[in-house]
Amino acid sequence: MDILDYELPPDPLLLYMFHPFERPVMERFRRKVEDDLERKPRPLAVAYVAPRCAEVWDSSHVFVRRLEGPNWKVWLTWLDE
After folding, report:
1. 60 contacts: CB under 8 Å, gap ≥ 6
2. CB-based burial of residue 60 (10 Å sphere; 0-12 exposed, 13-18 middle, 19+ buried)?
3. Does residue 78 surpass a pLDDT of 70?
4. From residue 26, how far is each of 54, 73, 79, 80 by CA, in Å?
5. Phi-psi sector, 43: left (phi>0), alpha (psi -120 to 50), beta
6. How far apart are CA 16 and CA 80, in angstroms?
7. Are 20 and 3 in contact (CB under 8 A)?
8. How much is the average pLDDT of 31-51?
9. What are the helix and strand counts (H, E) for the chain?
10. β-sheet bridge partners, residue 16
């Protein structure tokens, strides 16, 4: 299934990724997730291993990077700055 066609569940969600796509698809996916959160607000975390497109999530107006290690990063939506 194409990730851009996938309907995200309406519950709190953890998206775990091991560098699944290159930048153009990652940007579209991030926008899809942001749009979904606008329609259905809920806690959502993105855990990204081998984060070659980390800047895509860093540039989000919704997600904030909260944790990171040598080869992984985590962005959250529900914590205050």
Report:
1. 30, 34, 75
2. middle
3. no
4. 9, 15, 23, 25
5. beta
6. 22
7. yes
8. 96
9. 2, 4
10. 47
Alpha-carbon 77 to chain mean position = 9
Q: Which residue matches tokens 């809920």?
A: 42
Distance CA 65, CA 44 (A): 12
DSSP H or E stretch at residue 26 = helix 23-39
Q: What is the pLDDT of residue 70?
A: 95
Q: Structure pTM?
A: 0.90
What token pair was written down for 49?
Answer: 């291993």
CA distance 18 to 1: 17
For residue 54, what is the DSSP state? H
